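Continuing the batch. This is chain 6 of the set; chains 1 through 5 are on the previous pages. Same settings as before, nothing changed between runs. Recording input and output for traceability.
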Amino acid sequence: MTHPDTNPLRSFREPNVRIFFSGLAASGIGMWAETTAVVLLVRELGGQGLELGIVTACQFLPLMLLGLYAGAVADRSDRRRLIIIVQGLMGIEAVLLGLVDLADLETLPIVYFLSLVSGTLNAFSNPARRTLSTELVPDIHLANVVSLGTSVITGSRIVGPAVAALMAARFGTGLVFVAAAVSHVAFLIAITRMDTGRFHPLKPAPPSRTPIRDGLREVWGKRSLRVVLVVFGVVSTVALNFQVGFPLLVADRLMEDEVVFGWLLSAMSVGNVMGALVTARLTSVSVSWPFGTAAAVAVTLGAVALAPSTFMAFVFAVPLGMSTAALVTSSTLVIQQRTDPRMRSRVLALTTVLFLGSKPLGGPITGLVGDAAGALWANLYGALIAAAVVAAAVMYSRTVRSRDLKC
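Output for chain 6:
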């Protein structure tokens, strides 16, 4: 009797995976460094909770508006070529932001605009990048490579925010943006070194006049996936707004310097890696996983919000990172494993829209709650709503299952 391979790093045996994820790690570090530096720059320009919410909306609004279309484009394109084009443009955007900052020409409208450009490019990069990673290994390793991709992206947040905090404190935010541009070049180099002959390409999506509607129908037509999507979408919208809630927590509740925000994100990212590696050991994921991990997000976010000291906030940030990564990975895998592989980019884009594209709504709401009720509620309100939606989803699922058994 053969036992399934549960080595969480098993996909790294493939050379293309090692090359791809090394470039992705560099780009991810730059991305998180830029995201953190944008927050610090907005605060330097006098931004409060609302302004933080607006810049978050600019970063993620394109994902909400264009995410599913970008997924349809990726399903019918050469994903490797698409990534090369978009990564090059992302490097140019980061350089422009750095030059504006270094020349002391930065204003909130300029930061908003360039953040919108960055978000648009990321909307097209994300589904292509995530789908390409699944073409590097056979389908038997799908769960593993998706989990490893999550660990690389979220793990890069360990280094990215810390680098941004250190560089911003010593040299200013301008050089952080230039360094982010260099990281995108590193990813381009990695992409060009991959052996395309070792790919496991997916069949191209059939021509359709309604590619977005086809993708939505594929997922929404299954009742179990509908519940997962609702839980994932609500929790992402109200609870995963760390770029808005954490700066307010650090400055207004913990009374620490702004750069501690970067270190807090890095601490959470340690947990991200741990959570992603836990799911990487699995060969399949049940529908119950997203519910359990969403409940863990609610509990740990509430603990961070109520933390009596900076030290305890850092302690609670680790399990918050674990549960967040496990929620994202398990929700993505549950949906992928139950849908048509030819629509994989659209399915991945849909989960990205729910995870990141919801930020244009959740970011400003979190900022307004923080401005009106204080830093405590900027984080705690999301934890309470997340707990409520998980409880409702579990009750609904049990009711449906009980009714089906009686039929």
